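Sample 1 of the test manifest.
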Amino acid sequence: MARLALVMVTLALLGLALAGPADNSLVIGTSQEPPVIGGDPHGVVATAAIASEIELYLVSGLYRMDINGQLQPNLVTEVATVENGRLRFFEVADGQQRLEIDLTLRDDIRWSDGVPITTEDVRLWYETGTHPDMPVASPDFYRRLSIEFHDARNFTVIMEPAQSSDLLDSPAGTLPAHVMRTAWEEARATADATPDPVRKTEIFRAFFARFSSAEAINQRRMVYSGAFVPTRWAPGSSIEMVRNPHFHLHPENQQNYVQRVTYRFITDTTALFIAIMGGGIDATSSVALTFDQALSPQLTARAPGRFDIWFVANPVWEQLAINQFGQVQQVSDLRLYDVRTRQALLHAIDRQALTDALFEGLQPVAHTNVPPAHPFFNPDVVQYNFDPERAAELLAELGWTPGPDGILQRTTEDGRTVRFEIEFVTTAGNAVRERQQLFIAEDWRRVGIATRINNAPAGTVFAHEYINRASEGSWTGVFMHAWVSSPAAIANAALYICTAIPTADNAFAGQNTGGWCNPEYDAARNQAIREFDLEAARPLYWRMQELFAEGLPALPLIFRSTPLVTRVGLVNFVSNTFNNGFGYPPPEPWLVGWAARGAVQVYDQADFATRLVR
Amino acid sequence: MATILATEGSAKPRKSESTWAMAWRRLKRHRLAMVSLVVLGALVLVAIFAPFLAPHDPFQQPRGGDLRAMFFQPPSSTHWLGTDDLGRDVFSRLLYGARISLLVGFAAAFVNVLIGTIMGALAGYFSGRPFLAFAGPLSRLEGGWDFPFIVFRLSGWLLFYGALYFAALIAWILAGEPVQAGFAGDWTASAQLSLLGLGLTWGVVAFAAIWGLRGQFRLDLDILISRLIDFMLTIPGLPLLLVLSALLRDPRTGFGQTTQALFGEAASVVVIIFILVVFGWITTARLVRGAILSLREQDFAVAAQALGSSQGKIVFRHLVPNALAPIIVEGTLQVGIAILVEAALSFLGFGIQPPVATWGNMLTNAQHYIFFAPWLAFPPGILIVVTVLAINFLGDGLRDAFDPRSRL
Amino acid sequence: MFKYTIRRLAQMIPLLFLVSVVIFTLLSLQPGDPLDAVRMADPFMTAEQFQALRRAHGLDQPIYVRYFRWLGRLLQGDLGPSRTYGMPATEFIFQQRLPNTLLLTVTALLIALSVAIPVGIFSAVRQYSKADYTVTFLAFVGLSTPNFFLGIVLMYLFVIFLPDTLGLPQLPTGGVPGVFWEDVQAGFITAGQFFGQWAIHMILPVFTLATGAMASWTRFMRASMLEVLNQDYIRTARSKGVYERKVLYKHALRNGLIPIVTLVGLSLPGLFNGALITETIFSFPGMGRAIFESLMQKDYNVAMAALVFLAVLTVFANLLADLVYAVVDPRIRYD
C-alpha cells in the first residue's frame, strides 16, 4: 500500500513537472484565495489584491497599464489626451476643476459569448456604481463621477471636482448588460423598496456575488472581456481559465502561447514553497513566497536550470510613524515633536545593515515615501545615514545625558527625571516585522534609547480607535507599518497634509496619524493635485520630497521587494514596480507562453528586477 | 506474655507513621518518579540560576561585521545550540525561557488547585443542603401548611412569581411601543425584533409560571457550581482563550489599560496565568467535590458536626486535609498541563510576546525558519516534552504512593 | 430513559442560549472594527461615508439589538455572510470546512482507537512486564508532547530530512489535493488516484492529531481492563477453568470497553480543539482553522457560527455519551 502510494506520488509529481510546456498550460501558485472574481468591479462584496491580479486575465478595462506604467488603450480606440482633443479641463467654482474625457469603444470587442461590448455595458457599470445605497469601496470617486452616453460606442466621462489621480487609471468600467441587466433591475427594485440599510447592503452584495462567486463560475453564469475565461473554481483549491476566443488582442499564432492558466491556492506558505520546489508550480503570484523563503538554500539549490528567482521592487513603503502631538505626556517628555529628536532616532538606525542582514540588501533603504521607480522620484534629498555620533550629538543638544543603566535621561521643566523609553508598536504575528522591530530596538539601545514593545494583531492596531487617536495618546511613540505608494497615492499626496490630521474636530478622520504639519508642504501639494500637466507638476512633487526629508513626518525605513519565481522557458511573465498599479504580473497575459512551444519573448524580466544569483 | 516472647527475636515492631511518611517511603521505590523528581529539581535550579548559568545575554544581538553570517549559526563552541534569526544565543534563551515556562506552570497550577479546592469543597459539602428552595402551590411537600413552613412557601412564591412578573414588565417596557406600532401597520425591522424578544420573554415567563404551580426546586451551592462547570465545559475552550488573551493584552481596551497599569512589565505573564486559570480549576474542583461528597458521610465528619464545629472549620480543617492526596497528585499534573497550554498559546502568538523568550514562542519562530535552521525547533520542543514527561511520571508515582492498594 | 433524554434536551436550550450570549459579548468587546480595512484603503472616505457604511452593515446598533438580530436570523437558518469570503457563513462552514474537519477528526479517532484498544488490552494483560512498561512509557511521551511540536517534527522529517537523506518523495505539508470526485466521474483520474492523493495529504495531520488521543486512550484502556481483570467474576471464571482467551474476550473485554465508549464521546470536543492547532500548522482547510482565521480577521459571522456549532456539538456529544453508556451498561438506569 505504501509502495503504491509512493509510485503514485512520484508519477503525479513527474506528471506535474512535465505539464507546463507539454500541454501549453501555466500553473501559478498563490497563498491567497480571492473571495469573489470577475463580477464585482466596485468592490462591494470584497476587495482583495489577489482578485485584482487574477482579473488581469479575465477583465479588460478601458485602458491597460503597460510594463512601464504607461496607459495604453484596451477596450477603447485611444487613450484620451489633450493633444487628441479627448481630454478637456475647465475651471469651476472655488478653484476646482472639471475634467471631461471622450472615449470611443472599439468595434471589434466582444464578451466571451460573442455579444459585442457597447456603451450599454458601461451604462450598467455606471448605474450600479453610482446608486446612492451601493456600499462601494471608494465612495468619493463615484461621488465625483458622471457619464454622458452619446451612442453605442461613444461616451464622455466627467469628473467634478477633478483630481490628478483621475488620469492614472481607466475612467470607467463595464458590466455585461445582456447578462446582468435583468437581475440588476430586480435587485434595485427590491433594495429601493426596503428602508433597512442592512438589508439593502445584503441585496446588493448578493447581486454581485451571484455573478462572481465560485458557483457563478462553475455554472458559467457570467461572461468576460479579458484574454481568458474561467472554467472552474474549486474553492480552497484552484481556478482554471482558458483562452477567450473573442478577445481582441491575441498575438499572432496565438496557439504558440499558453492556452490554459490555473491559479492554485496554497495558503500555507510552507506548502506553497514545497510545491514550487517540487515542480508543480510554473510561476508565483504577487502574493506567494515570503522573502525569506525565496532566499532559502533549499530553493536556491534547486533553482539552476529549473527556475529563475527574481526580486521586483514593489511600492510598499515600510516606515515608522511618530506621535508628534505635544499634549501627550510621553511625546512631550521625549520631545518627539522636535525634528532633531526624529533625526537622531533615524541616524541611530543602521538601515543599510538591516536590509543587508535581514534581506540580503534586496529591499532598498528609503529616504522618502516615493519609490525610486516612480517618475517623480527626487534623488537629491537629505539622507540620514547611520551615524550614531551625530545621533548622540543631537540628543545631547536636547538635554539628554546617559543615566546609570546606560539609558539616556533628562530633567524636564517641572523637575521630573525622565528616561528615554519609547513605545514601539507594530503588527503582532508578522515574523518579518517583529524581527525588524527587535533589530531597530537593538540599534536604539546602543545609543541609549530604551524600547517598550507593544504589539497586537493587525486588526487591533489598525482599528480606527487606535491608530487614529495618537492625539489622545492611544499610541505614544513609534508605530511601524507600511503604506502602499501606488501612483494614485503619490499623486494625491494626502498622507502628510495638515488637513489629514485626525483630531476630535474632524471625527479622527485622515491618514496623517502622527500629526505633522508644514504649511509649505500643503501649499505645494494643493497646487500639485490640480496640475494636470506632468512637467509642471514635477517640480512641485520634488519640493514635497525635499520638505519631507527635512521635516521627517515619519521615519522612512525600506521599500519592499516581491520575490517572483518563474520556470525556465516561460516568457513574458514579468513584473515591474508599478505594473498594473501594484506590481502584479504580467502586463499582457495574452503574451505569456513557453519558448519551447514557439512563444516569442517581448519582455525581459532582467530589465525590471534583480535576479538572485548564488 | 506469650505474645511478647514470640515477637522478640523476630521483626521489630514498626513505629506508626503518618500518611506523608508512608507516601514518601513508597515513592522512593518508584524509580521513574524519583528520576523525574531529580530532573525537575535540576530544571528548577537551572531556571532560578539562569542569569548565572547563561553564557550570553539572551537579548543580545551582534553588531558590526557580516551580520548575516552571525544569524542562524549551527551549534558551535561559542554558541552551544547555535544562534537564532537575530544572532541571539539559543542556549541562553532556552535557560531564560525555562524561568517563564516553569513560573507560569507552577503559578497557574497553584491557583488552579487553590480555586478548584475551594469550589469543589463548597460544592461537595453543601450538596443537598439548599440555601434557597421553592415549592409551587400545587406541589407535594413535606411540612404542608404548618408554621413556619407556610412562611417559607409564601415567601418563595412571592419571590418566584414576582420575578416573573418583573421580567414580563421589563420586556413590555423595552419592546412594547415598537410592537404596538407594528400592529398599527408599521412593521420596521426594530418592530420585528421587538416582537421576537417580547414573544420569547413572555413565552418563557408563561412556561415558568405554569411549571411553577407544581414544580419545586432547590438551590444549593453544588447545583450552582456544577451548572457553572457544565456551562464552562460547553464553551469551546481554545478559541475562547484566544479571544480573552487578545482582549486583555490589547493596548487600548479598558481591560488592556487596566492590566498594563496594574502590572506593567509583568502584564503578559499575569494575563496568561489568568487565562490558564479560567478553565484550569475545573478538573480539581470535580475531583475535590467527589472526594468531599464521600468524606462528609464518614464518622469523623459527622462527629465534628455533632460537636458543633462551624461549617468552615469542618470543610477546611477536617474534610479537605483528608482529600489532600489526590489534590496533590492533581496539582502536580496541572503543572504539566499549564506548561503545555502556555506553550500552545505562545506558539499561536497569543501568549508571552517576544522578545521575552518562552519555550512556546521559540517554537513559533522555529516553524517559520524550519527550512534553513531546523535545529532551532528541537531544543525548546524537547525541553517541553522532557519537563512535562517528568511531571507526569512524578504525578503517576505520587498517585501510586498514596494509594495503599497499588504495588510498590 | 426517554424522559431523561427529553429533560436533557430541554436543559440544553437555555445553556446554549447563555453560551451564545457569552461568545457574542466577548467577540463584540474585541477592539477594532471589521470595516477598518476598507477605511484604510480609501484615504478620501469622509466620516459620514464611513458612518453610512457602518449603518449599511448594521454595526451602529447597540449590542443587544445586534444579538437579537443575530438570533432572529439564526432561527431562520441564516447566519449572515462571511465578510472575508462573501459567501454565506453557513455555506462556508458547513459545506466547505466542516466536512474536512470531520474527515480529519473521525480518521484520527478511528486510528487512535484501533491502536489504543489492542495495545491497552495487551498492556493490561501483561501487567508489569517489559512490554507493559514500554507501552506505558510511550503513552506518557505521547501525552507530554505538545501536538504543534509533533507536527513540526513530522513535517521536518517527512518533508525535508528523509527526502534529502533517503531520497523519498516529499509528503505535502498540508492543504488538500486539488482533485474532486467530479474528476473521477469525468474520467480525468481514477478513483485509486483520487483516494491516494487524499491519503497522502492527510497522513501527517491525522497522525499528529491522533497521537495525543492514542496515548491517553491507551492508558485509559489499560486502567479499565486492569480494573475489570481484578474483579471477582473474572477470578471465578478462571478458577472454573475457562480458557484464558475466552475469559478475556467474552467477559473482560465487554466490560472493559464500556468506559471507553463514553470517553470517546466526551473527547470529541477536545479533538476539535486539537484540530484547531493541527489545521493551522498544516494549512488544512477545516473548521478549526476557519475559527482561528475568522477571529484574527474579525469575520465575526463565521466565528459566531462555528463556535456556537462547536458548543452544540459538545452538548450533543455529552448526551450521546451518557445515553450510550446507559445502553451498554445494564447497571445504569436513568429516570
